[in-house]
Give the backbone structure.
Amino acid sequence: MAVLVLGGAGYIGSHTVYALCEAGREVVVVDNLETGHQEAVHEKAAFYQGDISDTAFLHHVLRRESIDGVIHFAAYSIVAESMRNPLKYYENNVCKTKKMLEVLLESGVQDVVFSSTAAVYGEPNRVPISEQDPTEPTNPYGATKLAMEQMFRWVANTGNLRFVSLRYFNACGAHQDGKIGEAHPTETHLIPLLLQVANGKRDAVAVFGCDYPTQDGTCVRDYIHVADLADAHILALDYLKDGGKSDIFNLGNGVGFSVKEVIEAARRVTGHAIPVQISERREGDPARLVASSQKAKNVLGWKPRYHQLEEMVETAWRWHRRHPEGY
Ligand code: UFG
């Protein structure tokens, strides 16, 4: 039996496919390659190019392969783009997931693990954030992920499906051997932008605000290594297979690092001065986002391996140095 990974050519998806293949699991990847990269797909995984909303295509894959669990990464994830074009996000993240779920139900596949995000919480009332805290997204990206969670919850309520939703905080880093990493057509994330400066691909990085109520005035985030996220997906799938009930888990380190601390870590790792310019706050950025991941540790037995920011940046740097142009 194989695991079907939807969006398995994207950043977190491709790292999870690697982890599954390295653990000796059979893997089938579906990706429309709109933002993913076929080169990122592990050679041992079967690959089908297509869209999750193409029901005939998905039925074809499910008929050909013996699938007993699904990990669903296929979604758009750029906050600023979602603010400009909310319906694009509702169509891609919610409507297409609904079509995909119909196919899974018709095919009798019952266990689904899927990507959610810290963005479902919006501006938190307290940190660390736990899964019971209020969910009030401040952007359409977070709203669509919350809508996906609710859709899964109601379908699970009919007894025909079990799901685990994983709410990632700030995913970062790359596979330790430097073969795959983070490569987006439009880069918006802090660590890859800093490494692009170190690589000579851009001149400087803007620091979005230095007047936040934090230790040094810059935003604090909970950075979690992509290999640790990959492990959590496998544990979540095994948890469902062992009869675990549908549930939602935060995935973070529980430690917050400020933008300035990330910049310093990137300077130390790369040996590059990495010039920065202080600029205006970015709309919708909460001052501090830090996860409590105690539930994932207790229930799934998740043990993140990466805790040091420098170590995480180092793995990303290994990828960026070898692939300055991405894939
Ligand atoms: N930042 C800068 N300059 C940049 C880019 C980012 O100062 O050029 C700052 C941001 O203001 C933020 C921090 O660096 O404080 C991290 O920003 P990222 O864009 O790397 O990540 P976000 O925290 O905005 O986003 C992450 C995930 C999203 C998710 C969001 C939840 O990548 O998918 O957390 O709030 F929606």
